[in-house]
Structures are given as structure tokens and as C-alpha cells.
């Protein structure tokens, strides 16, 4: 589930375009009154379908960047306050990646540090529609830049941007982000200088940070339990190496398998997709810990290591061996 704030922010960002927002809201089963309560949840399909309508009606190739510019640190609620109160930039990044479901993103957040800098990655392929994929990619990256600028001023400048789409001839991404840009990358990445990692946050407060983390955890769990896909994900995480069949998962949820399939299909999802995403998530964590590729394939229930390697590369754009080497460069291959 998502918050109505993501819809309200979008409406504010596109107000100058004069779109028929009321009609778009009705098409996803919402009213302007629904937008008045920040705690009101909306489903992921409402979020995506509203953005689909924005993209179609605006005819603006840069709509994603416009939407991202509409975000402020307060847009993220308690997560935003946790970022503000974090002791340093590294801690803020950790919070964002841990509670990515509070950022309204459809992507998996992760970051790595190497000789090229700090790379905040927006991984996965949550949308099969190329236009929507571009809109959500641009929105999230522009929001990161917008929030960074508001916290640190113009000195907060990325050193590189890697986009997981082909871009548009009508958008000057380099001018918008102030750094070199590459298209057709395996995932979306925004790079920063490593000097930022230990930069103190402007409003750091240890007590407030601890309090906000507790609230982030509670909010994240609440969103998880209100969404079928997130509930499935939560069940999978409780026993990460047990891969239930579709019928077994439905039984765990206390619903009919047919009902589970239908409700997931309403969001253009399937249990198979969710199980694959879970496997890749677990694989990433174990690869970062330096585990052997063969062992990971076995633990995650793949009949052959090659099947695991192919699935991992399809999802992430790189082989598990390469991913492991990037995250554990000092550890020998085993």
C-alpha cells in the first residue's frame, strides 16, 4: 500500500498543466476528499494507474522530472524526519534503503561504495511499460536530487547519473542533474562523491533519530500488512529459504488460491514474480556477504546453478559473480 500523499504531491506538481485531475482520480476510485487524510492508504495499482494517466494526458516527455521536483523532505513523513535527524549522510542512506517502502518508490533501493564513489541504485524492473518505467525512474531520481538540494544546497551535486531507459531527445538530463548522464544502464544509479558519507546531517539529533526509526518500523509494517503483495513478501522473509507453492502461500494467507491470483493480477502481478523477486533479494544479501554462487543457488531452491545465474542476470543486469566481486572485492572467490 502507498499513502495518498504520493497522489497529492503529483497533483501539485502538474497543476500548471491544467489537466483534468478530478477525472483521473475518479478513474482510480478516489475523490479529492480522500486526499485530505495523510494516513489514507491507496493500493499500488491506484498509484501506478494515476501516473499512467498523467503521462498520457500531459504529453510531456519530462513529466517524471516534474513529478520528482514536487517532492520535499516533509513529503516522506516520519521517514523524512528520520533523514533529517540522522547523524550523517551514510546513516540517512541506510534508513532510506531499509525503509524504501515509505518513499513511494516501486524500485529496490541499495547502495554500494567503490573507487568511483557512492552509488545509490534503484534496481529491479517493476513495470513492463517502457513509458511508465521512464516516468517512475525520472521521478525518483529527480526527487533524490530535489531533497539533497533542500538539505545541503547547490553543493549537493551528483557526479554521474546512469539511467535504465533510453531517455528522450526533448529532455536535457545533464542540465537537470548537473552531471554526466548515460542511458541504457542495467539499473538506475545516481553517484555521489564518497566525501559525503561522513557529512553530518544539518539537523542531526540522536534522540529524535531513534524515535523516528521506531516509528518508521511501525509504519513500514503497517503498510506491509495492508497490501497483499507485501504480506506475501513478509511471509517469504520469515522463512527465507522455504519456497512455498502458490497454494501453500494462499493457505498461509487464509485465502483461496484463486482469490490470491485474481487480487495480484489486478496489480499486474503474479505469485511467481513475487517469489522470483524474493529469491533475488536473498541472493543479493548473501552475495554481499561473500557466499559461494553454487551454495546460494542450492539454498534458494534452484535445480542448477546456471538457472540461478540466468535468473539473477535477467533481474539485475549482471551475473551473480560480478555482483559479488563488486560488493566483496577484497574477499577471494570460493
From TrEMBL:
Record keywords: DNA-binding, Transcription, Transcription regulation
InterPro entries, per the entry: AraC-type_N (IPR032687), Homeodomain-like_sf (IPR009057), HTH_AraC (IPR018060), HTH_AraC-typ_CS (IPR018062), Tscrpt_reg_AraC-type_HTH (IPR020449)
MF terms (GO), sorted A to Z: DNA-binding transcription factor activity; transcription cis-regulatory region binding
Residue ranges annotated for the HTH araC/xylS-type domain, each copy included: 226-326
Superkingdom in the source lineage: Bacteria
Gene Ontology cellular-component annotations: cytosol
Record carries keyword Transcription: yes
A Pfam family that the UniProt record links to this protein: HTH_18
PANTHER family for the chain: HTH-TYPE TRANSCRIPTIONAL REGULATOR GADX (PTHR47894), HTH-TYPE TRANSCRIPTIONAL REGULATOR VQSM (PTHR47894:SF1)
Official protein name in the record: AraC-type DNA-binding protein
